[in-house]
Amino acid sequence: MTPPEAPSAPLLADTVYRVLRRHIEARHLPEGLLLGEANIAKALSVSRTPARAALQRLADEGLLVPHAGRGLLVRHDDPAPQPLRMDLHEAGLSLVAADEDHLDSSTTADRLYPDIERAIASCMAFGRFWVNQTALASHFGISRTVAHDLLTRLEKVGVVSRDRNARWYVEPLTPAKAQEHYTLRALLEPEALLLAWPHMDKARIEASWQRLVAAIQAPAALDAAGFDQIERDLHVDLIHLCPNAQMVKVIQESQMPLIATHYTIERYSDSAQIGQSMLQHLSVLTPLMEQNPQRAAEALRYHLQQAAEVTIPRIANLPVLRPDQYPNYLLPER
């Protein structure tokens, strides 16, 4: 499970928020202009996650009001403005050089983050690694500043840490630490699911359910990206709708073992465990389709308990990685 946008989104979302707020406060965007994730993402060349976060922040501040359809409307004086559908640049959106530089830099980091998180997280269960920032920058053809930004994002979600000499390292995922994380998740994720239920979109649940059923019916066609999306559908896109931000933060940090573990599974092509995991996901999503969140929460707790029982013994018996199995910007501690 890779949550590619969640860790990186806050920095990029801040820029998107500042750009939109500046235009709204200066009345450069007309009243009633319809803003949505899609048209903002297209106009600013960002993903939908930072666009969504920025929209929510502006709505919370009263600068945008809900539209009866989808999206939000720019509000100046009219408490219920009429919707105006226009291309955002034609409506008045323009970027200064500083905006473009920050968006370009953030977008580069945003684009690379999933691959880097994937590569590093897949090594967590195999021991302690040092991260060479210069080698990371060289590997991806980016500046040390962007490399530092990426490592800082990884630090926020617990994938990497820094020692007293400011050297980056990957802390090993031990069986004991994995047990702690799974215990937290089994306690918090079902409760977060119940809190998130009123905020769930029926279409999103149905799309996740259909994607999962298709994968179960045709397992041979399921690739790493497809399995990654199935994990994200439940454990990120739905669970993270929980309005309790502190709960979501703790859950997100404790989901890191799942990332490491599933990439470990991916290395050894454990199709039986993947199939079992998908069936357990189905036992969560089906009650949500039937509007029974309590049964879904119970199924989610069982799923996490089973994942812990399978995963933790596996972590204790992993082989040493060969040099060709980890990127050149990682150095295993001897």
Short description:
This protein has 334 residues and is mainly alpha-helical. It has 14 helices and seven strands. α1 packs antiparallel against α5 (97-121), α2 crosses α3 and α6 (133-140) crosses α7.
* Radius of gyration, taken over Cα atoms and rounded to an integer in Å: 21 Å
Structural class: mainly alpha
Average pLDDT metric: 86
CATH top level class name of the largest domain: Mainly Alpha
Please tell me the total number of domains. Answer: 3
What amount of the residues lies in strands?
5-15%
CATH topology-level name of the largest domain: Four Helix Bundle (Hemerythrin (Met), subunit A)
Q: Assign an overall shape.
A: globular
The CATH homologous superfamily of the largest domain is named GntR ligand-binding domain-like
How many DSSP-defined strands? 7
Helix content: 55-70%
- Strand sequence of the main sheet, in spatial order? 5-6-4-7
Overview of this protein structure:
Keywords: DNA-binding, Transcription, Transcription regulation. This is GntR family transcriptional regulator. Residues 10-77 form the HTH gntR-type domain. It comes from Variovorax rhizosphaerae. Helices cover 63% and strands 6% of the residues. The protein is mainly α. It has three domains: 5-95, Winged helix-like DNA-binding domain superfamily/Winged helix DNA-binding domain (Arc Repressor Mutant, subunit A, Orthogonal Bundle); 112-173 and 320-332, Arc Repressor Mutant, subunit A (Orthogonal Bundle), CATH 1.10.10.10; 175-315, Four Helix Bundle (Hemerythrin (Met), subunit A). Strands 5-6-4-7 form a four-stranded antiparallel sheet. Strand 5 (161-162) and strand 6 (168-170) form a beta hairpin. The radius of gyration is 21 Å and the shape is globular.
